[in-house]
Fold these 4 entries.
Entry 1:
Amino acid sequence: MGEQSLSQPHPQPLSPSPPASAASTPALSASTTLAAASASASRPKKKQRSSDSNASKKPRLALSVRGRPLSADGEVAAAIRYLRAADPSLAAVIDAHEPPAFHCPHRPFHSLVRSILYQQLAFKAAASVYSRFVALLGGEPGVLPDAVLALSADQLRHIGVSPRKASYLHDLARKYATGILSDASIVAMDDRSLASMLTMVSGIGTWSVHMFMIFSLARPDVLPSADLGVRKGVQMLYGLDDVPRPSQMEKLCEQWRPYRSVAAWYMWRLMEAKNTTMPPLITPALPAPGQAFTLQQQQQHEQQQPAPIQIIDPGQMLPGLG
């Protein structure tokens, strides 16, 4: 959505008087004028296209340009101060919860691989598949594009990866191997460019991109407008009769810019508080930087909390992205 200019249009200068030669030019005859007007009226008018006619047919990526990452020192505190002042309704939710932390120990490629492996699986089953996948590559340092590309569909099927997910992994690894994507370019791209590039990968849709940007890249101003938990949180926060549609979310959450990622995190927490049976929607336990992500850690987390619910994006279902 482009920014609307608040400046007033500049007044147009008055047209100069016609030169004397123009004034002496004979006027068109009345019959000629009437004929021209009649011909113009008889032409069928072209139907003007509405710029919003197809707006609801395609899910929108409600993203802004890249800002300072939330993992930077003091950035979460700055976001909380801003949101508390910008939205009094949200301030009460902020006061009721500990502040979030946005730190991911994995490289972008690794995080995207992991997100694909977790698709459409319960948390415990996904953790088991992920652990076997990492073991197949000789540990987490081995989760590299060339190594993933070298795995056959049969090898992946043997550890519980479906043929479709195997094709997703290979497509991602192939785009890295050919230079279309790289960890460096992913980190450097602005949000809109990155969203366009990532959704070119098979198996990665709008919802997946939102979760990756928030929890893996710590981007500060990402609005997951299709996420059911966030939408229900907005409904509860503002006392709306109905769950807002994805197309309504950007307007409803405009006051949260430029920290919509943090506000979305509080919407998940708000829904947890409403329903104590609802687990944290997104963030599984993460290892400390430099440590391996073991199945034992995943199982311990599973014992402490129920499996994350699966939120459905129009094209993707991606639980447990850390």
Entry 2:
Amino acid sequence: MEKLEQENTDMMARLKICENEVEELKRQNADQPKVAFSFGLTDNGQIGPFNTDITLKFSKVITNIGQAYSPSTGLFTAPVRGAYYFSFTTLDGRSNVYRRVYLYHNDKRVLFSYNYSANVYESVSNSLVLQLEKGDVVYMVLPGGCSVYDDADDFTTFNGFLLFPL
């Protein structure tokens, strides 16, 4: 009987340690920044082509946790230093054209995606992980001479989220 009482005491002590560890993890998680966005471009159909490069301003909020993406400027601004994942999909409604889109980190082009379309309504998608400092910006650019298409079905989207702070 004494052995069972000792085992019970030991188990209760271990349970208390586990409960304290769970509470500490909950506190740590609550303190972590929450950053995630997903935007559609527009409901207006074809955008472009233009004579010069333009920053795409994704205005259709699907998700904007942390408010780090600004639909008025088209810029994602990193609220904390960390590793971030970004992805995009674009659709163009023209045929027999080169489709291009760029992703910039600050003023440096870090991703260039393109294809030649012999058919109407082909899409281009890509993604990457970037290490960002607090205040760094990430944005999409539509090169001069190119166009994209979007409507209520969100064919052209820009997405990102914080993987973890550094």
Entry 3:
Amino acid sequence: MTRKKVKLAFMMNNSSQKATFRKKRKGFMKKYEINKLCDVLTCAIMYSPNKSQPDAWPDHSEVRRLIEQFKNMPEEERNKVMVNHKMFLKQMVEMELEKVNKLEKGNRELEIWMAMNHFIAGKPLNDLQFTDLKEMRRMIEEKLKEFEANIKSWKEELAKMNQLLGAQPTVAGENIQNVMQMVPWSMWDVPTKSS
């Protein structure tokens, strides 16, 4: 049986809020596994609007000890591990912007490839701007370099195979045909540096 996904939203009903807080607090306080599994020092302080004193996990003395230990750390070391809300949000925004930039670049390249395919199919390139054509040229040049690198790698592999078989190193001819018949894979299976 699958569990129903809980919608994370503020609870308006006060009694439901209190009951959920009690249940979640107990579950949270039982999360001691991270201490045991990862051998790390952890503590938690949880304030409830219905209590005068906060809940501390694992206990008040351990929380105080860990906070003192943290305060006594050298400031440079403390700042390495400490992230405030603003820094956290900044990191998250930077990560999301990086994802957006990658997606935009991928979409842009896909648009250019589609335009090239339309051109190959005989359709005019009326909608393209000069910058689009420059981008198309750059992408074609990159692909050509990639193809040239693959061909060079294949030639090197074939030359090595010819040497191993005692044949004269040639790029084309009977020796390569003999090698291709003896080897159970085709030239397209030769691993390249990019793969």
Entry 4:
Amino acid sequence: MVNPKLCCRPKIHYRCIRPSDLDILEHIHVKLFPIRYESAFFQDVVNGRDIVSWGAVDASRPDDQSDELIGFVTARIVLAKESEIVDMLGYDSSKSDQTLVYILTLGVVESYRNHGIASSLIREVIKYASSIPTCRAVYLHVISYNNPAIFLYKKMSFKCIRRLQGFYLINGQQYDSYLFLYYVNGGRSPCSPLELLAAIVSYMRSGFKSVAAKLCKSEDRKISRWSMCKESHSLVSGSHNKRNLSVERVGYECV
């Protein structure tokens, strides 16, 4: 099992979770989380049945422990239209092929915390979600008193979109949950009323500018035509009195 203290700087490697990880995976879950997971969940994780997962190991540990899990993340692909955040994904979420990646569990053994392992595991999930063309976001729940996790997700640009009252029931007591979301592949939230108003104002301004430009162009054409007519009239008048025009020019230059 995992050592309580580190004897040297860890050399963290990341890999997929395998069937051989079953016992240690279950042991760490029991140790870290107040929620108890059924054995079927762990079987699904290690065998990759509808669940994707990544594990962290410390290659600097003795040979018999160098491939033992010291951190993990598990996730599942869900249909966007069947999720609880369908209202946060914009209009295209109604399409049948839109998906999301939901993070089920994330944990790091206490002695290995503050080494960036959790951040790296989350990045693995984001990279995986981004590789799926139909995926629009990664999301998860965090119990309201887990301040380190809340800080981590905010630091990694997850958005806290709502608070769910009494989401968790642990030992007969209810706890609230925060719902965090990270958009990928162009996913975005629907326009808020303020954003919609700003878009309308911007559209109206561009429309006014277009109309003004057309009016100015039309006015320039009128002036241009008037100038051409005036010039033509002057030339016609000059041709009728060519002699007088020459006299006026000589007289002007002599002044």
